[in-house]
Specification:
The chain is an alpha/beta fold. It is 33% helix and 22% strand.
């Protein structure tokens, strides 16, 4: 989160958004989408690192308030695609992007769009939980809000509690909010990172293999949480776990060697794919 968001561009909202299709903070998030509008649309999206063409001409629509899984073997461009959705590649000097990405109809790479605003609207949860080790549990949740200039202690406390509730962590930590975040278990730390992402009220949450380092019980809690969150958020998740993709996603995109091979409803991708490459991958013949 970058402090320059406060230069008259963004004023943090004072309450959590209600569970409705309309959003009172639409003025800072672009035009209100229609009920049938995709949350994210990519058109002819290509990404280069130096001379290497990593992602090749990807076009797809991500439905709002649904879980979309990105699958494929290592090195196929899954995480590269995910990071393009909130302009994280701009932090890499050798990266270059061609094509278009629209967030609820708004071109996120337009010259007048601030990257920090995009990253607020499109939150990110990484494979390895990354709580700030010198901060308490409570401060980890509210750090983004405070960086964006929110100082009202009552509002910060309310947002912190609500975010921890949404991340299914409140009951486990409410009596030790001042404890170091690193005192939590691995699964709890990952849910804390999800709470931190939710605190700034994104519209989309990106998750890059959020349960790959967790035990089965912690993984089940993360999956339950994702299914709960999709009532209010658009979720895009990268996963190597085919069973996980089948369990929690509404739509699945299969990437291979930087190309989008097939994209569709998850039951179809796993039971009746259109492409032989997809069938070979989901049945374990390669990858």
């Amino acid at each position: 989160m970058i402090v320059e968001a406060e230069k008259g561009i963004f004023k943090p909202p004072q309450t959590m958004p209600p569970r409705s299709a309309s959003n009172p903070e639409a003025s800072s998030r672009g035009p209100a989408p229609s009920a049938d509008a995709p949350a994210i649309s990519t058109r002819d999206l290509s990404i280069f690192f130096g001379d290497k063409h990593v992602l090749k001409h990807v076009s797809l629509d991500v439905d709002a308030r649904a879980v979309t899984a990105i699958i494929g073997p290592s090195g196929c461009g899954k995480s590269t695609f995910l990071r393009a959705l909130n302009r994280m590649h701009e932090l890499i000097p050798s990266a270059r992007i061609e094509g278009q990405i629209r967030l609820f109809g708004q071109d996120i790479y337009a010259r007048d769009v601030e990257p920090v605003i995009v990253r607020r609207r499109v939150g990110m949860v990484f494979q390895k939980s990354n709580p700030f080790p010198t901060m308490s549990i409570a401060d980890n949740v509210t750090v983004g809000l405070r960086l964006n200039g929110l100082r009202n202690r009552a509002v910060l406390k309310e947002r912190m509690e609500q975010s921890l509730i949404m991340a299914a962590l409140w009951d486990e930590v409410k009596d030790r909010l001042g404890a170091p975040a690193v005192s939590l278990s691995g699964g709890q730390q990952q849910r804390l990172c999800i709470a931190r992402a939710l605190a700034v009220q994104p519209e989309v949450v990106l998750m890059d293999e959020p349960a790959s380092a967790l035990d089965p019980l912690a993984t089940a809690k993360i999956e339950e949480l994702i299914l709960e969150l999709k009532r209010d958020y658009t979720i895009v998740i990268v996963t190597h776990n085919m069973q996980q993709a089948a369990r929690i996603s509404d739509h699945t995109a299969f990437f291979y060697l930087g190309e989008l091979i097939e994209y569709g409803a998850t039951p179809k991708i796993f039971t009746n794919p259109s492409k032989k490459q997809t069938e070979d991958y989901v049945t374990g013949r390669f990858g």
